[in-house]
Amino acid sequence: QFPFGRRLPCDIYWHGVSFHDNNIFSGQVNKFPGMMETVRKITLSRAMRTMQDLFPLEYNFYPRSWILPEELPLFVAEVRMMKDSHPSWKPTFIVKPDGGCQGDGIYLIKDPSDIRLTGSIQSRPAVVQEYICKPLLVDKLKFDIRLYVLLKSLEPLEIYIAKDGLSRFCTEPYQEPTLKNLHQVFMHLTNYSLNIHSGNFIHSASVNTGSKRTFSSILCRLSSRGADVKKLWSDIISLVIKTIIALTPELKVYYQSDIPAGKPGPTCFQILGFDILLMKNLKPVLLEVNANPSMRIEHEQELSPGVFENVPSPVDEEVKVAVIRDTLRLVDPQKKKRKDTQLGWVTPEVLPQLSPCAAVCCRCQSSGQAPGASEEVPDAAPGPEAALPSLCLKQVFPKYAKHFSYLRLVDRVAALFIRFLGVKGTTKLGPTGFRTFIRNCKLSNSNFSMAAVDILYIDITRRWNSMGIDHKESGMCLQAFVEAFFCLAQRKYKSRPLHEQVASLIELCECRLAALRGKRLVWGCG
Ligand code: ADP
């Protein structure tokens, strides 16, 4: 700990909350610039909406969501339309304040007219989301899963998933939402921080009992009931990869702004907490992504009224210690050096193509061996690591890249955006940058004049800036650019699915920019 500042450069910097290192030029930092902003409820919902517009089936693991207050009329209209066309549909919605956590300010409603508009929505925007009414129950209780995911690198994309996580239980038996039970938080919200205050909360003495258990213990139960846990794991891996693919464009914009390419700076990695709900039919649903998941391995116990003591929590310890230990092993700077001289550590080539569930389930039968132990290749390098348990973090990207790369369209749009940002250190595109983009990609013609380009820029930018959270900079943010890009793609390639229109326009732009670059090189030589 350096409470009064650091004197010497470090190999690894471990911050408690967010990235704030403008004055370091080497090493690795455990936070990405802009991650907190990128995973806020509203920003995440927007990023998921963009992906749902492009790939509706692939992104149906995220509940239908609307952003308040700006989409309130849309929410009301869409719900009315759906109710009219499906009279038996009796939905419930969950309203979650943006930037909230631990269940703070969350409430359930049956009808859009129940949204509490007085004051708070204007001052504190929120997301309203379709409520999953039929979650999977264990011991008649609703629970969610906290999975730890290591984003080891953004470029190239490297993602690891911990083979075990936490299952956090409600403390009142679950009933489908009715007007009578909507307000019962111990029945509907799985937050540990809420349920700990219920008289029914049971501190877990082992990994498979109580109000917080390991995910692997749930999988064992499901497996013994004949559930296809292998498929479940593969759905979860796919959910995690697709979610990170949705987040990377925004993260890259922040990254180039804080750590400009070509200048000395640190590299980043980050442990994220994924909150996932399982539906009754075992389909995983993403609830949220946490940039700062709690790494506490003890809990507070009330000894006598008002007197608390911290006691170890075996479930937290089992899962979290392994995640931090393996993260440090994966980012170990010494490892890099050793890798140069020895054949690799855990590389995608040497890992057999096994799904992690096979490994998790071996816990059921065998000793206390960590899940997946048999699956990993032991460290080739002798040394202190040899004595450590094998990795609990499993690489899923680039390992499964070929199944998901076609989804990375917005990443390529973001690359175009970043290219025209001009002065490093910004996250917004000015009107000149936008015009240069249009001109260099030759997108303007007699049907689409430069005056029309300016109007498109002004319209979209103004709308995004009026609802944006970030008013610090003026100009076009990435999401606004993506919207403009989709508009251009739809104009140019009519009556095709949106993802094809966007892919075609990206290819055209990339091609024209490559040709321009070629020309400039030739002129340079001349
Ligand atoms: P917070 O950051 O405040 O914890 P979450 O989005 O995680 O907010 O929601 C809190 C809890 O509410 C979740 O842990 C889950 O139990 C429940 N929940 C959230 N969204 C949904 C949903 N769409 N359907 C069903 N339950 C949900």
Automatic annotation (TrEMBL):
What molecular functions are annotated in GO for this chain?
ATP binding; tubulin binding; tubulin-glutamic acid ligase activity
- Its gene is Ttll11
What start-end ranges are recorded for coiled-coil regions in this protein?
none
A single Gene Ontology CC annotation of this entry is:
ciliary basal body
Q: Is the keyword Iron in the record?
A: no
For this UniProt record, give its keywords in alphabetical order, as a comma-separated list: ATP-binding, Ligase, Nucleotide-binding
> What is this protein's name?
TTL11 polyglutamylase
Q: Which GO terms describe its biological process?
A: microtubule cytoskeleton organization
Provide the organism lineage as a comma list.
Answer: Eukaryota, Metazoa, Chordata, Craniata, Vertebrata
Q: Which Gene3D superfamilies match?
A: ATP-grasp fold, B domain
